[in-house]
Specification:
Keywords: Acetylation, Isomerase, Mitochondrion, Peroxisome, Phosphoprotein, Transit peptide. It catalyses: (3E)-nonenoyl-CoA = (2E)-nonenoyl-CoA; a (3E)-enoyl-CoA = a 4-saturated (2E)-enoyl-CoA; (3E)-tetradecenoyl-CoA = (2E)-tetradecenoyl-CoA; (3E)-octenoyl-CoA = (2E)-octenoyl-CoA. There is one protein chain. This protein folds into two domains: 80 residues, Acyl-CoA Binding Protein; 251 residues, 2-enoyl-CoA Hydratase, Chain A, domain 1 (Alpha-Beta Complex), CATH 3.90.226. It is of the alpha/beta class. The N terminus is likely disordered. The radius of gyration is 21 Å and the shape is globular. The protein contains 13 helices and nine strands. The two termini are 33 Å apart. The protein binds ligand LG6FSS7D. The site of ligand LG6FSS7D has 22 residues, from α6. Ligand LG6FSS7D binds next to α6.
Length: 385
């Protein structure tokens, strides 16, 4: 691992303005983009912190060598263990995806530096101020990437708020289409179960009430999102990351992706309007298999049932999907927005009512022994899906 650039120099570099010139045309990073990004890292004037450095390290190793092939360091070899963990957590992520994610991460770091030093007060600042996401806006496409790969992109409270903020910004920016995807081997493992551990002074009842308010607002943002919204499902998807797919306009999936809504196993009930959208998409019996019995679908099955628009081999997933998206982004944006309105608007009121009802049922479910036991079992490492 000693061949990876040592980031200690970041602490002593002074303040040139950073500008990243990357060929974003294909939205899959070329070797040149990757090399540019590596050079850009060396120019960073501010230490991005250990967590980011580990992410960069892991993506670099995955992009250049593929899946982690080093023996696991001993427990007392803390630094190499942290590096090994970061690399290993990327699993079988394809090299080209790792390369793209590396370029995106460097781009978000660079633009964050740029805007803090260059942007006039009040000017729209893209891609900055997100802890749990990477957000880029290029070539008519705003791309929101869930960015907690070490936690399988589990959605913690901060991420719920950041996704809402990113969607609100995307609805107003000059992009034509918006994409949601995940960094690492998962698309998302759904609600972060540690969200349930932060109990306010009002106790579990207050926690359940606050969570229901948050969930309702979160799902509402998807119902109301005005531009074409595309999910690029790069790996397994669980829970709420699956249910809200019914509110997307197009869903592309890698053949590595799976779709799992284990609500009964968790003592919970459907959300994300899936109690309505899934029935419309796949009919009541198939929807029941998923939402009540927790049947996990392969990408092929999800496509056959209409939840997924198209499935691509993982090895060519990014290339094929981004070629399509780039073409979509060139279509007249107003026409696309208005067509979406015509297609979706008559359902909006119904969807908001379904959302409200699902949240109110869940508020009760979260207080049930079934749910509390399931969460405790996961947190105490007694269970996993
Ligand atoms: C407020 C609004 C509420 C809306 C409600 C929504 C409902 C849902 O979304 S229900 C779905 C909830 N999700 C789960 O039950 C998934 C739980 N996770 C797992 O079963 C497994 O982690 C996995 C099958 C997803 C992956 O297993 P694998 O062996 O490959 O990896 P791990 O070692 O388990 O995971 C790595 C790391 O990530 C942490 N983690 C993963 N998923 C979650 C999660 N959903 N919540 C919290 N933490 C998660 C896992 O604990 C590991 O952490 P450590 O490295 O610190 O041990």
């Amino acid at each position: 691992m000693s061949d990876f650039p040592d980031f200690s120099y970041l602490q002593v570099i002074s303040f040139p303005v950073v500008q990243l010139h990357m060929n974003r045309a294909a939205m899959t990073a070329s070797q040149k983009d990757f090399e540019n990004a590596m050079n850009q890292v060396k120019l960073l004037k501010k230490d991005p912190g250990n967590e980011v450095k580990l992410k960069l390290y892991a993506l670099y190793k995955q992009a250049t060598e593929g899946p982690c092939n080093m023996p696991k360091p001993g427990v007392f070899d803390l630094i190499n263990k942290a590096k090994w963990d970061a690399w290993n957590t990327l699993g079988s992520l394809p090299k080209e995806t790792a390369r793209q994610n590396y370029v995106d991460l460097v781009s978000s770091l660079s633009s964050s530096l740029e805007s803090s030093s260059q942007v006039e007060p009040g000017t729209d600042r893209k891609s900055t101020g997100y802890e749990t996401l990477m957000v880029t806006s290029e070539g008519g496409i705003t791309k929101i990437t869930l960015n907690r790969p070490a936690k399988k992109n589990a959605i913690n409270v901060e991420m719920y708020h950041e996704i809402m903020r990113a969607l609100k910004a995307a609805s107003k920016d000059d992009s034509s289409i918006t994409v949601l995807t995940g960094n690492g081997d998962y698309y998302s493992s759904g609600n972060d179960l540690t969200n349930f551990t932060d109990i306010p002074p009002g106790g579990v009842e207050e926690k359940a009430k606050n969570s229901a308010i948050l969930l309702r607002e979160f799902v509402g943002c998807f119902i109301d999102f005005p531009k074409p919204l595309i999910a690029v499902v790069n790996g397994p998807a669980v829970g709420i990351s699956v249910t809200i797919l019914g509110l997307f306009d197009v869903v592309y999936a890698s053949d590595r992706a799976t779709f799992h809504t284990p609500f009964s196993h968790l003592g919970q009930s459907p959300e994300g309007c899936s109690s309505y959208t899934f029935l419309k998409i796949m009919g009541p019996a198939k929807a029941t298999e998923m939402l009540v019995f927790g049947k996990k679908l392969t990408a092929g099955e999800a496509c056959a049932q209409g939840l997924v628009t198209a499935v691509f081999p993982d090895s060519t997933f990014q290339k094929e999907v981004w070629t399509r998206l780039k073409a979509f982004a060139k279509l007249p944006p107003n026409a696309m927005r208005i067509s979406k309105e015509v297609i979706r608007n008559r359902e909006k009121e119904k969807l908001h009512a379904v959302n409200a009802e699902e949240c109110s049922v869940l508020q009760e479910r979260w207080l049930s022994d079934e749910c509390m036991n399931a969460v405790v079992n996961f947190l105490s490492r007694k269970s996993k899906l």
